[in-house]
């Protein structure tokens, strides 16, 4: 039965005060933090540097680029075009002969309707050469997780093992691609920096801090291998977070100004009103502590900037520190801007990888049917619930 709009409207009206109170509180905190940001960037650079060096704990962020009170310390892009054709031409100039690559994943979780626990994990990737020939590659790789994979450790929900497998497959593909990109560059006599690899999400795996050791360790090892490969082979890597709620700059300001903590305030919300399309913040080292303490030599080698890519909050870009040290940061960020233009506000290469990887309802039905037929051939006792058979009859 469909929901009743009148009931939704009634409940919202009854809870209007809750929303008003939240907005008022958020507005107050936002004003405090923006004032703190203005005061911090107005400090003489020597005084600001001394203060940062005096901090022994994790202060959230440590600037790599100069901080200036000009333009609220926002690095302006000054990019404006009269029409989309002009913006696409700018994008073509910055992506010409640059190969971009991204991976995404999808899964079919175990169904209670099946008597045997089984899951399907699939990753898809998109490689775009941005060359005159218009060549690109899209493909998929899948894996089936068996009862051995899913119920070996009953202390953990099966979903955790599935999410880990998907993550592992995605990051392994990115790592393998970086190594291959270096080899191809050498063969073709071109620079590996003419390649840009996107990781869809944060390279700082904060979520893993809440996991048990045996679950957390594989996540960290995988992302470290990816970061190490990018640095070793000098292939640029960007972690792109479209809806970022990180609070590294907020933590810096709270430490500097002794402000109250507010979960409603995060970096992107703090900076949004200061930025126009294409603008970014100064590049800073992520000094979050926590999970980063387990990143070994990479602990202080992750940098970030916020980039205004659409009408919403700015996206967060995370870059291995070697990109900044090599003087490639501006080039890489321009390439990200170009991908966003092609994708109408979101990197085209990530969007296409997502479309390639996603498992549709029809894919799930094919998987179930193949599984059922295969189980019958192998004389495995796979039974289906009456509920699933009823759905199949009604939707067939």
Description:
- By secondary structure, this protein is α+β, with helices and mostly antiparallel strands.
- The chain has helices at 5-14, 16-41, 45-54, 84-95, 147-151, 158-188, 213-233, 248-257, 267-271, 321-325, 329-342, 348-357, 361-377, 386-395; strands at residues 60-63, 99-108, 119-128, 136-145, 195-200, 237-241, 284-287, 302-307, 315-320.
- The protein folds into two domains: 27-357, no CATH class; 361-395, no CATH class.
- 47% of the residues lie in helices and 15% in strands.
- A nine-stranded mixed beta sheet has the order 1-7-8-9-6-5-2-3-4, sandwiched between helices.
- A hairpin with a 7-residue loop joins strand 3 (119-128) and strand 4 (136-145).
- The radius of gyration is 24 Å and the shape is globular.
Topology, element by element:
Layout: H1 5-14, H2 16-41, H3 45-54, E1 60-63, H4 84-95, E2 99-108, E3 119-128, E4 136-145, H5 147-151, H6 158-188, E5 195-200, H7 213-233, E6 237-241, H8 248-257, H9 267-271, E7 284-287, E8 302-307, E9 315-320, H10 321-325, H11 329-342, H12 348-357, H13 361-377, H14 386-395
Parallel strand pairs: 2-5, 5-6
Antiparallel strand pairs: 1-7, 2-3, 3-4, 6-9, 7-8, 8-9
């Amino acid at each position: 039965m469909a929901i009743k709009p009148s009931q939704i409207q009634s409940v919202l009206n009854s809870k209007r005060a809750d929303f008003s109170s939240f907005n008022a509180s958020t507005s107050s905190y936002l004003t405090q933090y923006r004032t703190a940001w203005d005061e911090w960037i107005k400090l003489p650079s020597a005084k600001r540097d001394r203060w940062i060096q005096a901090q022994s704990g994790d202060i959230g962020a440590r600037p790599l680029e100069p901080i200036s009170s000009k333009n609220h310390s926002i690095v302006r892009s000054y990019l404006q075009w009269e029409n989309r054709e002009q913006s696409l031409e700018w994008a073509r100039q910055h992506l010409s002969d640059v190969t971009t690559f991204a991976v995404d994943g999808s899964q079919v979780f175990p169904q209670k309707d099946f008597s045997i626990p089984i899951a399907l994990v699939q990753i898809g990737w998109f490689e775009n050469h941005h060359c005159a020939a218009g060549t690109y590659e899209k493909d998929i790789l899948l894996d089936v997780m068996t009862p051995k994979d899913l119920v070996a450790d009953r202390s953990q929900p099966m979903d955790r093992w599935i999410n880990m497998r998907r993550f592992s497959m995605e990051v392994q593909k990115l790592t393998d691609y970086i190594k291959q990109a270096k080899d191809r560059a050498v063969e073709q006599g071109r620079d590996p920096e003419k390649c840009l690899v996107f990781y869809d999400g944060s390279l700082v795996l904060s979520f893993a801090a809440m996991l048990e050791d045996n679950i957390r360790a594989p996540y960290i090892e995988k992302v470290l291998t990816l970061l190490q490969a990018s640095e070793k082979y000098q292939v640029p890597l960007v972690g792109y977070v479209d809806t970022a709620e990180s609070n590294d700059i907020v933590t810096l300001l709270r430490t500097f100004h002794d402000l109250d903590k507010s979960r409603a305030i995060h970096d992107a919300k703090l900076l949004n009103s200061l930025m126009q399309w294409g603008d970014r913040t100064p590049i800073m080292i992520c000094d979050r502590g926590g999970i980063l303490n387990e990143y070994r030599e990479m602990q202080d080698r992750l940098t970030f900037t916020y980039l205004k890519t659409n009408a919403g909050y700015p996206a967060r870009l995370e870059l291995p520190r070697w990109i900044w040290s090599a003087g490639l940061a501006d080039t890489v960020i321009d390439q990200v801007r170009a991908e966003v233009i092609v994708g109408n506000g979101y990197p085209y290469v990530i969007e296409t990888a997502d479309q390639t990887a996603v498992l549709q309802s029809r894919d799930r039905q094919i998987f179930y049917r193949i599984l059922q037929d295969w189980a019958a051939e192998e004389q495995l006792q796979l039974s289906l619930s009456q509920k699933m058979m009823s759905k199949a009859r009604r939707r067939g």
